[in-house]
Specification:
elongated; mainly alpha; Arp2/3 complex 21 kDa subunit ARPC3
């Protein structure tokens, strides 16, 4: 259904806009965008491409160079939305938000650790188990905002979708 796809694209773009307006670090809708795309787009290639393209465009707008670890994390988060199709409840949306935040944290910080360089200064994480632990430890403050952002934006975007898609318009001819 074209209207459904257009609505999802609009909501994903609205989610991408959350990166542009002032916000606490990592309190954005990127996780929700990935889950929303996976849940509502029937074709998997669209489910994967629309959130990633929205992320890429917002990166360009912000002047960020795309960070590969974030895009790779998306590839793990979008299937959460696909799996969510089986049973959509408040509880499953909440759980999906949490799982997405954990996956994002684990994937992005693991890849940051594997690419760490002595040029990173105090943020350098040696290629050892202790270096990996340091990398995850340094990222903990950002995790809470990612988690809260996922929960807030999942419920906001999913709620908007449900309200708008179920709305019946009555036209009165005068």
């Amino acid at each position: 259904m074209k209207n459904k796809s257009l609505l999802i694209i609009v909501l994903i773009v609205v989610g991408a806009f959350s990166r542009i307006i002032p916000h606490p670090d990592n309190f954005t809708a990127i996780g929700a965008m990935a889950i929303l795309g996976g849940l509502y787009f029937d074709k998997k290639y669209i489910a994967f491409s629309v959130p990633i393209i929205a992320m890429f465009i917002s990166d360009l707008y912000l002047g960020y160079k795309p960070i590969l670890s974030i895009y790779i994390a998306f590839l793990f988060i979008i299937p959460i939305g696909i799996k969510l199709r089986k049973k959509i409840t408040y509880f499953s949306i909440f759980n999906s938000s949490i799982i997405a935040a954990i996956l994002f944290f684990l994937v992005t910080n693991f890849l940051v650790w594997t690419n760490s360089s002595p040029l990173d200064g105090i943020y350098y994480c040696e290629p050892t188990l202790m270096g990996l632990i340091k990398c995850y430890t340094q990222a903990i403050p950002f995790f809470m905002n990612t988690l809260l952002g996922n929960i807030f934006f999942c419920f906001s975007l999913f709620g908007l979708y449900e309200v708008i898609s179920k709305r019946k318009f009555i036209y009165i001819n005068s």
